[in-house]
Specification:
Length: about 190
């Protein structure tokens, strides 16, 4: 089934209003983003990306919905976005990929700079984020392997900072705003499909 109809949208909205979204595929009573879309469209529990949906957007939704906190994944903002994902088509895949890559290089990876600074990898990480190339990423990975001993020290510091963890985690997710990047990929120039 390749067309996304009004009935499919209504089915999806009704499902999202009464079910929670888990990490992973889930089951019919608690299905992931793509599985909820497929249940609404075909009645099947699968995380296959429907033909009517951007493949880049679908892959991003799968990865991000599994990574984001439960409360973010089940927020009204995210659940209101999901019915607009099917029907996005595959014509503007390069534009969607560019949005995703820009977000990764410019928003997500720089948020990890303080950790890499603490572990002695800061200059390589900063260069990678500035250069945005595979070579810079390989250099950062090599530096990380060379400094693997720092992981134990970092873990000890993390235990000491456990009381700050929840606040830092919430701040991290609010700052990187994965729902925002999925919105930009869905609507591209702000216009709903």
């Amino acid at each position: 089934m390749t067309d996304y109809t009004t009935d499919h949208r209504l089915n999806l909205e009704a499902y999202l209003a009464t079910h929670t979204l888990p990490k992973g595929l889930g089951h019919e009573e608690s299905a992931c983003t793509l599985a909820a879309i497929n249940i609404a469209m075909s009645g099947k529990l699968t995380d296959d990306i429907p033909d009517c949906m951007s493949e880049v957007l679908g892959k991003a939704a799968i990865g991000l919905q599994d990574a984001m906190p439960d409360e973010m994944r089940n927020s009204q903002r995210y659940k209101q976005l999901i019915p607009d994902m099917p029907g996005t088509g595959r014509v503007q895949e390069k534009e969607r990929l560019a949005i995703m890559l820009d977000w990764m290089w410019s928003v997500v990876l720089p948020q990890l700079q303080p950790i890499t600074d603490d572990d002695g990898l800061g200059s390589e990480w900063r260069l990678m984020c500035e250069d945005k190339t595979a070579d810079a990423a390989y250099r950062a990975a090599d530096a990380a392997r060379a400094a693997a001993y720092a992981a134990a020290a970092h873990a000890a510091r993390a235990v000491d900072a456990a009381t700050d963890y929840a606040a830092a985690r919430a701040e991290f997710w609010a700052t990187i705003d994965p729902i925002g990047v999925l919105e930009r990929m869905t609507y591209l120039k702000g216009a709903k499909p």
